Amino acid sequence: DIQTLCKPDEVPFPVEKNAPPYLTEKWLQDTVRLIEEDFHAHDTPQLRVPPMAVVRCSRGGKTRALYELSRVLKERLRGDDVAVIYISLND
């Protein structure tokens, strides 16, 4: 029954001690920190703001990772007049 399923953002993060780094809350916190470090940066002739890539094999959780990043960034950047747009080419 579809009514018994929970929303993706309601699924708790794994607490497994040896979980791969892309599955843990620490991965999410570290990635958000990296995004926030470059958030207000602008390209200059001397420095280019680095792009970010989420890379995994097929069925490796890229879409879920992007969804979780967009969810956290919406909350964290709410007062900065920013629109966080989640785009997935899988769904």
Number of β-strand runs: 0
Gyration radius over CA:
15 Å
Low-confidence stretches: none
The run of helices and strands is HH
Category from helices, strands and their pairing: mainly alpha
Number of helices, counting only DSSP H or I runs of 4 residues or more = 2
Largest sheet: none
Distance between the termini: 21 Å
Helix content: 25-40%
**Approximately how much beta-strand content do the residues carry?**
under 5%
The residue-averaged pLDDT reads 77
Outline, from the CA principal axes? globular
Q: Overview of this structure, please?
A:
It is a single chain. With 91 residues, the protein is mainly alpha-helical. 32% of the residues lie in helices and 0% in strands. The protein is built from two helices and no strands. The protein has helices at 25-38, 62-76. It is globular and about 55 Å long. The chain starts with 24 loop residues before the first helix and ends in a 15-residue tail after the last helix.
